[in-house]
């Protein structure tokens, strides 16, 4: 197994993602980090964190990639993200809804290994406006 490298950029990016209630885009992360590192470094760190099982990718309804923390069950070998992702049409936030796990029934001979379910609508924060 490859040795896990911890750099200042990696630590800060992971802290940002772990501390966020919503999934963050690359652009969100870059804005929050300021001049700490360049965009290419951010891409590399995000890829490394995903490979290590620390974060997962969510592609929102607009095709933008978001990153969220993994539950404690994920490893570098396998991610467990068969849960709902909610994409707000107003603020464009993406939220993992861990306690809403849909049951998927596929036709014979199809084997599901993972899925990405996006529900779009209005989040509680925007509904209160």
Automatic annotation (TrEMBL):
Q: State the Gene3D superfamilies in the record.
A: Winged helix-like DNA-binding domain superfamily/Winged helix DNA-binding domain
Domain of life, per the record? Bacteria
Name of the featured protein? Fur family transcriptional regulator
């Amino acid at each position: 197994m490859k040795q896990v490298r911890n750099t200042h950029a990696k630590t800060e990016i992971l802290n940002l993602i772990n501390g966020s209630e919503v999934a963050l885009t690359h652009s969100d992360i870059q804005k929050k980090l300021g001049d700490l590192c360049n965009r290419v470094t951010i891409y590399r760190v995000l890829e490394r964190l995903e490979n290590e099982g620390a974060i997962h990718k969510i592609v929102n309804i607009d095709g933008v990639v978001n990153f969220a923390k993994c539950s404690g069950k994920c490893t570098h070998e396998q991610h467990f993200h068969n849960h709902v992702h909610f994409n707000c049409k107003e603020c464009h936030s993406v939220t993992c809804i861990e306690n809403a796990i849909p049951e998927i029934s596929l036709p014979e001979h199809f084997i599901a290994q993972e899925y990405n379910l996006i529900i779009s609508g209005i989040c509680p924060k925007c509904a209160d406006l």
